[in-house]
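Dig into what follows:

_____
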Amino acid sequence: MLTLKKIKTVKGEIRVPSDKSISHRAILISSIAEGKSVIKNWLVSEDTKATFNAVLQLGVQAHIKGNEVIVEGRNYLFSEPSDIIDAKNSGTTARLLMGVLSTQEFFSVITGDESLRNRPMLRVVEPLRQMGAWLDGREKGNKLPVAIRGGKLKGISFFNKKASAQVKSALLLASLKADGITEITEPYLSRDHTERMLRLFGAEITQLEGKDGHIVKLKGGQKLHACEIYCPADPSSSAFFVALAVLTEGSELILKDVLVNPTRDGFFRKLKQMGARLEYINLREISGEPIADIWVKGEGRLKGIDIREEDVPSLIDELPILALIMALAEGTSSVRGAHELRIKESDRIKAIVENLRSMGAKIEEYEDGFYIEGVEKLRGAHIKTYKDHRIAMTFSIAGLVAEGETIIDHPECVSVSYPEFYKDLERLIHQT
C-alpha cells in the first residue's frame, strides 16, 4: 500500500527510462542479425528482462554492461531451448518471440504470468500458421502456454484489422526467413519501430498507402547486419510527469530525449489541442527515430476532447492518464474505438471507470471506451490497481492532485516498466 497527498507543483528536468517497445525490439533484432550489436540506454525492467532471458535460452550470447547491452547475433541459427520460455507479464515478448520461433524447426513453448496467460494470442498464432508454422496451445492456440514448431515458411498477405503493432512485428520477424513477399495491411498505421529498426539493420522494406489502409511489404531471405542502437526515453513513462505538470498550476518541467515518433506521440498532440502549454525542443533523429526534449508548463484547466478510433493506436498506453486529465478538464470528453484496453495487463476501461468514479469523477463506461464530464476537483480514494503498472502510475498522479488521501494497492507493479517511478516523482515535487 502507498498513501499519497495533494502536492503544490512539480519543477525541474528529468530523463525517464528508455522506451520499452524499442528496448524489446533491439534485443530481438540484434539476436537475429549477424555480428555484434551494441544497444545504448537499454531499459532494464521486468518486461525487457523477460525478452533478454528468452534470447539467452536460445543460445544467444548477450551481456549487460552499465546501461549498454552487447549482443552477439545468431543470424537466426538458434539452439532448441531446454525449458519453457517465460514471458512473465510481457505481451511484446510473447508475441514477437512467436514470430522468431516460427522460423525454427525445433520445439519450443512460451508461457507467462497469470495476467499474460489470459491475453489473446490467436491474432498472432493464426497468421503464423498461414505462413506454415505449427502452433498450438490452450483454447486452440488463443491462450498461453503456446507450443511452436517452425520451419519452412512462405510469405502471405494479411489484413491486420486491429492495427496491432505486436502482430505486425511478429509477422515481419518471421517473414525475413519466409519464401516470397509478406504483405501486411492495417486500417491505421500502428507503431512502426520494427520497420524503422529493420531498416537500421539493413533490411529493405516497402511502406505505402493503399485503399484499405497502410501497407508494409518485406521480401524473405534478407540478412540483417549488426549495428549500434540508441534507446530514447519512453513517451508513455514521460506522459505521467507531463500530466502532473499540466494538472498543477505553476509547474514547469523539461523531459529529456523523449521519443516523438508520430505513431507514439498522440498523447502530447491531444494535450496541445486541449490547451496545454507544451513544446518539442531540440528535435533530432537518432537510430532512425525522432527524438525531442519536451517543455511543459501548468497554466490552469484544459478543455475536453474526443478521441476516435483512428486516434487510438498512437496513444493506447496513455489513455488511462489521459482519462485523468479529461476528468479535470472543462466540458465533456470521450474515448471510442479503444476495445484493446479491455485486454491489456488488466481490463483498463473497467479500472479507469471504477477508480475515477471512486474519486468523484462523472464517467460513463462504454464497451469500447468512456464518456467523461469534467469536474473541478477529485477527492482521495482507495485505488485498485489490478497489479497493472499503467493504472498504478495513473492513479498515483491522481492522488497527487486530489483533495485528501489516496491509497494505492500494489504500487510495486510499476517495476514492469518504471522501477524508479516513485523516487523520480519525489525528486520533482515542490510543496511550497
Notes: The longest helix spans residues 20-32. DSSP finds 13 helices and 26 strands in the chain.
